Amino acid sequence: xxxxxxxxxxxxxxxxxxxxxxxxxxxxxxxxxxxxxxxxxxxxxxxxxxxxxxxxxxxxxxxxxxxxxxxxxxxxxxxxxxxxx
Length: 85
Prior knowledge:
By secondary structure, this protein is of the alpha+beta class. The chain has one domain. The chain contains one helix and five strands, in the order βββββα. The strands form two sheets. The protein has a three-stranded antiparallel β-sheet. A two-stranded antiparallel sheet has the order 2-3. A hairpin with a 7-residue loop joins strand 2 and strand 3.
């Protein structure tokens, strides 16, 4: 695992909104696949108008999440640089 986070508590915005167990959650990691390696990066999600169907018809606002943080783009740059080596 290259990058992880930990959290506990209640998150009303998620269907499974209770995280009671304090454990690591992968954010960036490598996985071998056949003759190569895949880089996984889980911070690519925004939420907008139609992303929550069928739970709601339209989501009321754009939530950019990690896309608003400069560190998100630095991690993308590093991942791309690793991939083209």
